[in-house]
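INTERNAL TRANSFER SHEET
From: sequence group
To: structure group
Subject: Bifunctional protein FolD

Please process the attached sequence and return the structure record in the designated field. Keep the field labels unchanged so the import script can parse them.
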Amino acid sequence: MSKIIDGKAVAVIVRGENKAEIASLKEEGLNPKLAVILAGDDPASVIYTRSIEKACSNAGALFEAFSFKDAGDEDEVVEVIKRLNMDNSVHGIMIMLPLPKRMNKQRILEAVSPLKDVDGVHPLNRAYNLSNNEGLFPSTPQSCIELMVRNGLPIEGKHAVLVGRGESVGKPLIYMLLNQNATVTICHTRTRDLAYHTRQADILIAAAGVARMITADMVKPGAIVVDVGINEMEDGGICGDVDFDNVLPVAGAITPVPGGVGSLTTALIIKNLLKAIKLSKKRH
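Return from structure group:
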């Protein structure tokens, strides 16, 4: 029988760890604080900002949002980031993406101090991931690794096939898997004979953003299947990149959507906030 990897159950454990660590820091007189920059009015970004605020509140961390409703002035956004970088009471900074098209995304992301970059988007943190050094890394690919590790599913020595090469999930995940000593094959929507590659996977990770593209005949019996996709359906619900119901009997373990990878991301943002505090102490 296939094991359903419960992201919500892992999130409960991580949230408990975060809460305990924040309580301990408060006893030392340190109040962890996260600042979020929201430029424009992207509906998903507004919802995500609220969920992070709630996560901070539940964990006992401080939270402050800086909104630029009319897409703001790029220079003004950069000035706010610079001020937050210098503010010792702020330990983490997160830029909500996507930014308005008329803003220079690279300039804004690079303005954030790498030591406060809780979303792991600064080029220096990307390089630390690539070179297997200590840094702050994106929460969604981290969630994929965390779910496997905390469910006792071995990664080392396994053949991981990753379908998706996006900047926020696919590319960082390549190096996270390599750093766990997996053998990695990278596929994407233009890969020829995709099913040939996916059928060889001990670990199959779907992160292409195409609804139910991974079907049962594309999965090796007993494989671990991690579904990163979040796709809107006509009835208003969401589904993943994996045809869950049909893949379930074939897979050895599988993450559901919802209730899988996405359940853990906000808890890992808080975990990154706490890691930022440790890294800052170490490097100062």
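Handover comment: The CA atoms of residues 80 and 116 lie 14 Å apart. The mean pLDDT is 95.
Transfer complete.
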